[in-house]
Amino acid sequence: MEPAPGPQEKYQLITRNLQEVLGEDKLMAILKERELKIYWGTATTGKPHVAYFVPMSKIADFLKAGCEVTILFADLHAYLDNMKAPWELLELRTRYYENVIKAVLESIGVPLEKLKFVRGTDYQLSKEYTLDVYRLSSMVTQHDAKKAGAEVVKEVEHPLLSGLLYPSLQALDEEYLKVDAQFGGVDQRKIFTFAEKYLPSLGYAKRVHLMNPMVPGLTGSKMSSSEEDSKIDLLDRKEDVKKKLKKAFCEPGNVENNGVLSFIKHVLFPLKSEFVVLREEKWGGNKTYTAYEALEKDFAEQVVHPGDLKNSVEVALNKLLDPIREKFNSPELKKLTNAAYPDPSKAKPAEKGTKNSEPENVVPSRLDIRVGKVISVEKHPDADSLYVEKIDVGEPEPRTVVSGLVQFVPKEQLQDRLVVLLCNLKPQKMRGVESQGMVLCACSLGEPRLVEPLDPPAGCCAGERVYVEGYEGGHPDEELKPKKKVFEKLQADFRVSEDCVAQWKQRNFLTKLGRVSCKSLKGGSIS
User: Fold this and answer.
1) Quick one: 336 and 368 in the same domain?
2) What's the predicted TM-score (pTM) here?
3) Residue 170 has pLDDT above 60, yes or no
4) Is residue 152 part of a domain?
5) Do 336 and 393 belong to one domain?
6) Which residues 6+ apart lie within 8 Å of 407 measured at CB?
7) Hey, is 130 helix, strand or coil?
8) Where does the record place the TRNA-binding domain (predicted)?
């Protein structure tokens, strides 16, 4: 039997692979006296994806260090964050999260009996907690509340009061769960410093805060539940895993913003302490890496090919996902999954005159709209009014797109700019050149006709998903059938708002970084 780790060994286990620790001295002082009490919370919103293996592997470290660990299913937070989880689905989504998080923990060998599982509504609706929310709201400025939630609470054009309450509730959770420390991603840092500032004002102790790095998604940006192509769901089929990895950004020799390489670093290596690159004998055969740095060096020097890297990740990932898929193959959990996350494309049409009265099946989530970067622009060889563009949308090869922008946008203004591209129209030939997408543009309603390509928010990456507010879920059609006229029906309600934001039925077009807009054509149409 191995001897129990001492305070220094516990400290190393608790802090390894973290990006930042706030309160290191306090952490060490507690470890010298007793076991650390720590909690990790997750809002029960979109379906958990494979990046959840990162906090789960840290929870395994906490348990090895003897910590008392609480997992909070933050159901009330999910509702307060711009109703990411509608009230009528809150209970179902919380049950889904409980089952899937436990399945993830079991798949990496974490003993569930050593963990405490709590729901937010178990204590957040109590008289004492509610009174503390009021007490805190009398001290916290609007500026501080908005700043604290900036990285976590969903950004919308007209923020709700509930989003300002979110940081206060998360701060109070530390006191009501009776913990010494809170663990989360580095995107939670502003909420953690908010808690350190305001909890002492109520007479409560300042806690230790432990932060994991954020895991880049497959498109090179943050792995997000609302960005479909950036992440792999825990219940994705093997063919879906293959398809998403095939589309993932993984440029030869490029180790920056490489979602596949980052996934190996932050998920697979911490869990297995090694990674095997699978290759045919003629390309050198299999190679086992026991240090991530060696793998990154070989990839940078193009010793490891992107195709081999993707295939190897696919094999390793499916080994982790197989027991989770098997558990959720039961009729009971299949029913729970479908009830917690109903397919919006199968929703019944709302009653006449209600808020969501769009025709059945015609919803914006069926459109595959992405951020694209224009790599090259040339005049069409047989049509003076057409450009032929090569546009990077996060796939292995750029798409060829034909657009009638010659009269409206100079060539040099298109070159290297970010655009918004509809990617699942059926490809069609335009004067002999096949076009594989449509650049979405704002158009003036009067004469003279003016056209401006829509602008994604600054900082977006090629391939990032563009969605309509409230329709983050659902899977886009593989290809829109021309006879169904899905795009045409939705396009009829595309408009540019008075502050130049692209909208569908007054709901904003968004990426994870904010609103899609145009330069000046307020009140215009979009085509």
Assistant:
1) no
2) 0.63
3) yes
4) yes
5) no
6) 385
7) helix
8) 363-467
